[in-house]
Amino acid sequence: MAASLRISCSDLRALVDPSGANSRARWNLSPLRSSTEGQLGLPSTVFGLIDFSTILMATSYSPCREVWASGPYVLSGALAGVTKVKTKAREIGIRERPVELIYALDEIPPWPHLLGLGFQHVAVICPYLVMVALVAEAAKLPHSAAQSAITLAMIAVAFMTVLQSLRLGAVGSGYLCPPVVTAIYLPSSLAAAASLGISAVCGMVIFAGACEIAVASLVNRTRKLFPAVVSGVVIYGRRIGARKDRRERVVAAYRYAQRSNRRIFRDRRLHACGDGGPCGLGHGLAETLLLADRDSGGIRRRGDLRRFSTQLLRGLQGGEPIRCARPELSILCVRSLFRRGFRDRGTRLGSPSDRRADDLPADERCRVATPRCTQHRGRTGSVA
Amino acid sequence: MPRGDAPMYATSRADGLGCLVGGLLGVPGLSAAPTLVSVEMTTGATSRVIAWSIAVWFILLSCLPKFSGLIVNMPRPVMAAALFFNGALMLVAGIQIVASRPITLRASIIIGLSLLAALTVPIFPDFYRSLPAWTHQFTGSIISMAVVVAVPLNAVFLLGMWHYSYLRLGTSSEPATVVRRFLREACQ
């Protein structure tokens, strides 16, 4: 039987004799003893098994309102009038519980309340999904793909909500901290989507997430460099500048990066999708998921899920390309991850309608252009 | 589940991991929302179990294509209203964060100069356009300009900011209260 012992702060205050010179040395345990016996109905022998020293030491560091000593496992059996109790203090912690809270961190609301509270959060999060639609529109995705993107966004939000609520080793806050599709990325995402396609947005976000993971361990050390003043100014400035279209600047920065990183961009094995982004792998996987979901018609029934899985596996295995309305978003770029010799040029500079021939380098123009250009190159080569 | 405050790096790592997964799924970008924190404060419900309820709701909604179609087909004015709502909250959140600490003279200079420098970007675009090309990535937007000015200014003002304090513990009051007050004053 698992028992949870809740001790009020007044009880804990009563434990300490304030008149004593060394308050820790003088504990008046009788209120706690009576409280324990009253709440749990335990004999006094159980009381001694609980490690109260931990509680009391902890209370000396934190003025708490309530202290949980949850998890003392009490295995009691009555045999011939003898009670054997085994108590294990699994974890004893201190947490300050504000009185205004209805359901604190570790409390479990009733089912109706739980569903209602969850729906309330969902209702607040849903307007932020509009940004996904905006980015999809900027990327000129068809209607069905935009719908799939929103579906996947909801799945991502669900994943991150649960991830933040857990404490999986060094990942997760352990608090209710639901995410939203943030507007911080919106202007850059719109510019990247309009210029380079949805794959660039995916790569950008993946890169941002990887950077955040990489610098997470430096957060405590760099807090001095980013105090509240700086953070607030950045957020404030973000809002001020959110409406400004920075498409040209992003494109210029992209071109600049392309020019200055020729060596990296030539290495197609690192950036397999060949669009010059830093995360070819991410682009490919994101497009695989997005397109598999779209081409399978979305996940609505069990059969759709099977079709989605089939499309996904076909894309990842480098089988025949998934039929796609927009060739520049073809799953071929994922195939290139597994076929070293394959190079997809479709995603290099966005959709064919968006890109111009002048955007491509001379050698690339000759490769993807008509046989006439090939002949031209041949003549040029012979002359050279 | 271990109790106690989560280390900052764990929170940040989860945020980054969620963002990465979001990128893999084709989402523009995810981040923890101050709006939802205010919702939790308003409702008084901070139970972590609610996260599972939220996840279940979203999984259910993701299986309804009509719901995602509703968002896709949302009229532009309604989208703009949603963005305006979001922007208003973000604006106020920025001001709240700035004002969450006492605004000293150094903080005043950091805030004032950063915002003024950021506002010069849309006001004097020709000037910044005339600068060398490599500077455009720093001066090209309001946000980058604010960061470029605020972070070095803060670093400069950190010079000579060493604080030495001591605390004498007596028996007249609770040690925890005294220590908490001392740390709060020292960290300001």
Please give a quick description of this structure.
Chain A is mostly helical. In chain A, 52% of the residues lie in helices and 7% in strands.
Structure description:
The complex is a heterodimer of chains A (384) and B (188). With 384 residues, chain A is mainly alpha-helical. Among the domains of chain A are: 2-95; 111-243, no CATH class; 359-384, no CATH class. Chain A contains 17 helices and six strands. Chain A has helices spanning 9-15, 30-40, 44-49, 52-61, 111-125, 130-138, 143-165, 186-196, 198-215, 228-240, 247-260, 262-266, 280-295, 302-316, 332-338, 362-368, 371-383, and strands spanning 2-8, 66-73, 77-79, 82-84, 93-95, 179-181. In chain A, the strands form two sheets. In chain A, strands 1-2-5 form a three-stranded antiparallel beta sheet. A two-stranded antiparallel sheet of chain A has the order 3-4. In chain A, helix 1 runs antiparallel to helix 2 (30-40), helix 6 packs across helix 7 (143-165) and helix 9 packs across helix 13 (280-295). The model of chain A is unreliable at 1-94, 242-284, 318-360 and 364-384 (pLDDT under 50). Chain B is flat and about 65 Å long. The mean pLDDT of chain B is 81. Helices cover 69% and strands 2% of the residues of chain B. By secondary structure, chain B is an all-alpha fold. Chain B has ten helices and one strand; from the N terminus they run H-E-H-H-H-H-H-H-H-H-H. Chain B has a domain at 9-63. In chain B, helix 6 packs antiparallel against helix 9. The interface between A and B is large, with 144 and 113 residues. Strand 6 of chain A pairs antiparallel with strand 1 of chain B, so a sheet runs across the interface.
